[in-house]
Amino acid sequence: MLSMLQRIAYLPFSMDLKEVLRDLYLAICRGCDGTAPDTQTPDARLCLAYVADVGLPGAALTAVVSTITDFGPDYVLDAGDNNYLDGDPAAWAGFLPWINTQRYLRVRGNHTLDTPAGIAADAAAFPYLFTDSNPWWRRVLGNGLVEVFGIETGKKTNGTFIPGDLQVAGGAQYVWLEAALNSSTARHKIVMLHHPPVSTGNDPSHDVTPEMDWVVLAKADAVLCGHVHMAEWLVWMGTPLINLSGSVQTSGTSLVRPYPVAAGAWPVFVNDIDPLIGRLRVTADDVVVEVVHAVTGAVESSRSIYDKTPRATRMADWIFPRDEDVNTADPYTDYKLGTVASGMRVHSVLLAVGTAGSGGGSKTVEFFYNGTPITTQVPLTNARVSGTSLLGRWIPAGASIVARVRGWQPYIGTAAKGLYYEILGDSMH
User: Fold this and answer.
1) Which of 252, 338, 339, 344 is the most interior residue, by most CB within 10 Å?
2) Per-residue pLDDT tens for 326-337?
């Protein structure tokens, strides 16, 4: 019967009939408790949408819902703060097609936990996302293709925690999660929580929850978070820690913690400007996360959760100084080096000087992107620039790189040589 319903549900009928048949098929597959019947084999593929911090109605949320509706996911994963209106159902009204069929899987964020009204509205809308009245839950999707585990950080906007031991390693939620991950037979395991344990973001109004820097999270194949109102991808304890929480409100602060952000964390993608959501394409062998622009629908980047190796990015060339950088109060010349083809996080700058030449003042070079420093002033000597507070900054795709050279006049004639530089980093692309 399931095979027949699956074939019927994906025939080119009218949209209403098609959705009814598909919902019936998925409901039978899930079973009443959200687990897959033992007699079923995993589905061939699933499409999952992933959002966070989308609880503020307006043009941005309308664009998010429209884009998600266009690609028609089987389920929507929401990493928290789906309601900024003290529980008013208008905040999640756009997701009702998935909520009404229990295909909308959320964790609670700080804005839900701030007031009794928010907590009550959430409990009334999502009674299927609790385990024995506890705020954690697990759901098997696609007959064992993927299992999602929702846990709670329990943190309010003012930084305090709700009563209990939700954040405690070894507490009830921790013990439940470890047992659930160990017992899962799904092909892929995804944990979702609101506040990330680490982040590259440095906006004090969107803090992390280091209390939940749990080793057990490394047992998941991926961890999805929210709260920081930006997009980032970290390889953390060997596990992708993904955050796409800036689709409705982006931080836009460009405040980035020094690199690396924490022991065991390796950032490979950061974007705190564009409104981005996720589309997860799940098959038996892989989960590919497509980062989608919420307004245009364009796929900005794509990466497997099992691809845990940052890709190297390199800019290298020679700079040949000009004469006009001498005999002024602050002698320097800016040299445009080009643009970054894909975003990268800088981890080192290499310098090799043929000859420093003559000229007044100290001989230094510093690098900028779009007017923002990458390094401090560095002496013009053969050197590997490392350890400065600005290394680790994320440089967005299309950024213009400029070298500012001070106090350097090259020798004339055959003795004149330039400055060789390499800017090395890691990229998601």
Assistant:
1) 344
2) 445 566 788 888
